[in-house]
Specification:
By secondary structure, this protein is mainly α. The chain has 13 helices and no strands. Helix 3 crosses helix 13 and helix 12 packs antiparallel against helix 13.
Length: about 350
Amino acid sequence: MSAKPHHDRKKIAGIVFGSVVVVFVFAYLLPKIADYGQVWSVVSTLSWWWILALVAVSAFFILSDAPPWLAVLPGLSFFNALRMDLAGSALSQVLPGGAAVNAATQFGMLKSWGFEGQPVVLAVSLTTLWNQFVTFGFPLIAIGLLSLEGGREKTLGLVALAGLVIVAVLVGVIVAILWSPGMAKGIGDRAARVATRLKAIFHRGPVDWGGDDLVSFRAQAIELLRNRWPALTITTLVNQLAVFAVLVVSMRALGISRAQVDLAEAFAAWSLIRALGSVPITPGGVGVEEVALSGALVGFGAHNAEAVAATLVYRFMTVVPSVVLGLLSVATHNLGKPRQAPKLEPQPGAP
C-alpha cells in the first residue's frame, strides 16, 4: 500500500488542527484577556512618531536577516541573501512544516542560483544551528536577569530547563562530529542507517549519503568556522535581538511603561514565546505566540488591553512585512540571480 494517502491525511489533519488552534485563540482566548474594542482604543492612540519608530525598527530587523548568510556562504550578495531568507521564512509561516519548509526553500533558491553541494548544506546547517543556540539559550539568560532583579524566574523555569537540554544535545553532537574524522564517519554511517530504515517505512529507497560525506562536511565546517564563527555569532545575535527591539518599541508605543514591564521582564516574556514558537503547532506559531506573549506581559504587570495591543502590533510588524516580501521573493527568485556562484573548497591541510 502506498504511504502517500496516509501522508496526505496527516498533512490535512495538521492543517485542520492548526486552523482550529488559531480560531480558538483569536475568537476565545485573546478576548478573554482583553476585549478587542479596548485593544483598538489603545492601538488608535499611536502617534505618527511611534508609527515611524515601529517601521524603522521593523525594517532593521528585516535587513538583519542577510548578514548571517554572508558569513557562511562567500559569493552570496546581500540582496540575494535577504530575499532567500525572507522567502524561506515566509513559506514556513504560511505552510505546514516549519523549519523543513524553510530549509527546502533555501536549498531550492540557492541551487537555482548555482550554489550547490556541501557549501550550501554547510551554510544552511550552520545558520540553523546558531539560531537554535540563541533561541534556546536566551531563556537561560532571562532567568539570570530576573534573578538579579529579585525573583519571578519561575515563569521561565521549565522553558529554560528544556532549552538547556536542547543546547547541550546540539553542542554534544557538534563536538562529537568535529572531534575526529573517525568519530564523524561513525556518526554519519549510523545516521544514514537510521534514515534508510525510516524511509523504508514509507516504501522509499535508501539515502545516498553516509559517513564519508559527514567527514568531508566536517573538514569544510572546521575551515569555515575557524575564520568566520565570530561574524556568524555576532550577526545571529543582532538578527535575533532586532526582533526583541520590535517588541520593546511596541510596548512603549502602546503605553506599557518601564515601571510595569522593564527590559529584563520583556526579554523573559519574549524569550519564552520564541522558544514556544519553535514548536510547530501552527505555521509561524500563529495563535500560540499571541496568547503566550499577552499572558506573560500581563503576568509581569502590564494592563490587559495594552498587553494584547502590544502583542498584536509586535506580531504584525514582525510577520506581515516579512511574509509579503518573502512571497514576492519566491515569485521573483529568478530575477537578478548570480551569473556564477563560487564553489567553497576545503583548504589544503584542513583536518
